[in-house]
Amino acid sequence: MVSIQGGIGLLLLYNNQGGMISLGVKSKTGDLVKCEVIDGGELKSRRHLNVHSKSATLHSITDKDWEDIKFGVDNEVDFYVVSFVKDAEVVHELKDYLKSKKMYSAGCNANVRVIVKIESVDSIVNLPSILSASDGAMVARGDLGAKLPIEEVPLLQEDIIRRCQKLQKPVIVATNMLESMIDHPTPTRAEVFDIAIAVRQGADVVMLSGETDHGNFPLKAVKVMHTVALRIESSSQVNLNSVSLSRHLAYKSHMGEIFAFHAATIANTVATPIIVFTRT
């Protein structure tokens, strides 16, 4: 349940497969909210509701989620992605559970990494502690844009990527990257630029959602994203500049990482591969 304060004028956003339906709250009682349609559309099943600038008061991990988590451990999954993370406590709770499974269940693979989805108002407020507790993050731009002013989303994306780089943790950029390819065989040029910007900013993963979930051209969408990402990564400018100053400074006290960083920079500049022999 989401607590709706104030009533009049609060905007409700209903995420719909083809866009968003916007509703303005006119009045409310204990179990009824009356709204005026601002931006209409077809209301489909299994969509979810966002209240602008508010976070849900639900638990991040439900009883059903715990059942799924146990199933994942027993079947040796590699990652859990936790939605609507409000604070670092939910990450610690999940990690403590995974450690207990590893300790008391012989043969279980509990070396599972926890990725947090940054998609709510609370997750932005508590961003430093959440990222510190996690093993990586996803910039869930769809929900961020529904809960916060859309002009803030590009700035938040860049900030989250920079923070993850500084912590040397992987970061995923997701949602609406090739949205037009749900219905069309070619992307818009703006979408191509969107992928390029995420790669240049230093994202480790760019992710498709509806394009491969229910789109008409899933394989083409994957090929486009793959091709664009490889082309942008291959440019020397990206190789030299995608690692931010903050990440570079994180290497300062680690001599081995300093050598590795500069060796990689030289190899990228002259387009020469590196072969490394290891003992393990």
Subunit arrangement of the protein = single chain
Largest sheet: 5 strands, parallel
Low-confidence stretches: 1-10, 12-19
- Please indicate the percent range of residues in DSSP E strands (runs of 2 or more): 15-25%
Number of helices: 12
- SS-based structural class? alpha/beta
Share of helix, binned: 40-55%
Shape: globular
Ends distance: 51 Å
| Alpha carbon gyration radius | 21 Å
Please describe the topology of this protein:
Elements lengths: L10 E6 L2 E10 L4 E7 L9 E3 L11 H12 L4 E4 L5 H17 L8 E6 L2 H5 L1 H7 L2 E5 H7 L5 H14 L4 E4 L14 H13 L3 E3 L2 H4 L4 H17 L1 H6 L3 H6 L4 H15 L11
Parallel strand pairs: 5-6, 6-7, 7-8, 8-9
Antiparallel strand pairs: 1-2, 1-4, 2-3
What can you see in these coordinates?
One of its GO terms (biological process) is glycolytic process. Pathway: Carbohydrate degradation; glycolysis; pyruvate from D-glyceraldehyde 3-phosphate: step 5/5. One of its GO terms (cellular component) is cytoplasm. Pfam families: PK (PF00224). Belongs to the pyruvate kinase family. The structure is a single chain. With 280 residues, this protein is an alpha/beta fold. 44% of the residues lie in helices and 17% in strands. The protein is built from twelve helices and nine strands. The strands form two sheets. The protein has a five-stranded parallel beta sheet with strand order 5-6-7-8-9. A hairpin with a 2-residue loop joins β1 and β2. α2 runs parallel beside α4 and α7 crosses α9. It is globular. The chain starts with 10 loop residues before the first strand and ends in an 11-residue tail after the last helix.
